[in-house]
């Protein structure tokens, strides 16, 4: 077994060394004009213009970030707690320094604008034999039909230290090696079909470590891009809660997810409410069209089909409004909108519509009978 193990290590080392050589060679070509590095759009535009394969683009992105943005522990005081990654990007590009969330946000933003699918990943890391108390952020990106792991923070230089040179150790890293130092909250981002648990991570990995149950991370990741944000957060929370984490380690993460779910739910409810009000106003408009026709002694003449169409439009708009209000009433938001007032208006309009429909039918009967 030892020769096989040694061969595996040599193979993995050769893989990493080859990646380092390739990106070191690429590095000297990534000299983006200062006028274009103020925004992720500018960086992406340069890279798209000068690099033509996804491999070269991701190389250029990583090389530029790790060479031009430095890790600065003082930037932790500027950590952005919400989900606005554009702020994280602009902060890093303006100051040319930042912490892990800035590095990952820049990588993620530029990759997306270069047509490369990428996600930011949160979790814990192991350094110096112990697990860091604070969390960490890195990325995964989809290239040539496969997902890869990238941590530009750990490959960048550090402000004020002897180590100010960028490296390429954590570019497209092997998942089995990467997970020994990086454990994501959500197991799908391990990029392993048998993800490891926190217990494995805490005790250290060995050949005897039992991996988790089979998990098709590729399918899960491919589904994410087609999900709305609420569904994504709900699935993510479920996976984290079932991944064998100690509760104390995931409390903060889950609270953040639930906060985002609450914000999105309230936003969705507000949008539905405003849309229901618009439907109500449309119904009022159609209803008033009929009242104007009636008040004008049914002149100029409208056919029965034309009048019935007005009634149908009122009913349709009322139905759409009620459907949206029903969704609001079943919302998971903690702070729910009060739909009582508009429901009363809808019910009142529905009753008045029935009266006008009955009146119109009587009018038609009188016309038919020659009265």
UniProtKB/TrEMBL annotation:
Residues 92-154 form the Transglutaminase-like domain. Residues 1-19 form the signal peptide. It comes from Hanamia caeni. GO terms for cellular component: cytoplasm. Pfam families: Transglut_core. Keywords: Signal. Gene3D superfamilies: 3.10.620.30. SMART domains: TGc (SM00460). InterPro entries: CAP/Cytokinesis_protein, Papain-like_cys_pep_sf, Transglutaminase-like. This is Transglutaminase-like domain-containing protein. Coiled coil: none annotated.
